[in-house]
């Protein structure tokens, strides 16, 4: 917990000084921690790297239900849905979301 807070503080300090991806938008990403997972450090670092690479990134937070990812991705016309699952008990939640996408006929729409 303490390490995560320190990292968040450091990122906030250096963020204004980091280079941006330029004017070229490489895509739209929706990212967050799956339902039952309350860890945001890992996906937060990935989100920052994607932003620096020119992606428009929308962070949904932690403990995000599968349909929230899907609804937001559709609303924003996202290209990528990023799922974070730090806990062994939450990793299967990624497959739940993928199954929903498949059942809805949207699996090929998002990476």
Spell out the key features of this protein.
single chain; 111 residues; alpha/beta; 3-stranded parallel sheet; 4 helices
Largest sheet, described in full? 3 strands, parallel
| Helix/strand order, N-terminal first | HEHEHEH
Task: State the helical fraction.
Answer: 40-55%
Which of globular, elongated, flat, extended, rod-shaped describes the shape? Answer: flat
Structural class: alpha/beta
Report the portion of residues in β strands: 15-25%
The termini sit apart by: 31 Å
How many helical stretches? 4
Strand element count: 3
The low-pLDDT segments are: none
- Biggest sheet strand order reads 2-1-3
Provide an overview of this structure:
The protein is an alpha/beta fold. It is 42% helix and 15% strand. The protein contains four helices and three strands. It has a three-stranded parallel sheet with strand order 2-1-3, with helices on both faces. Helix 2 links the parallel strand 1 and strand 2. Helix 3 crosses helix 4 (92-103). The radius of gyration is 15 Å and the shape is flat. The termini are far apart. The mean pLDDT is 88.
Present the secondary structure layout.
Elements: H1 2-14, E1 27-33, H2 41-52, E2 55-59, H3 66-75, E3 80-84, H4 92-103
Helix pairs in contact: 3-4
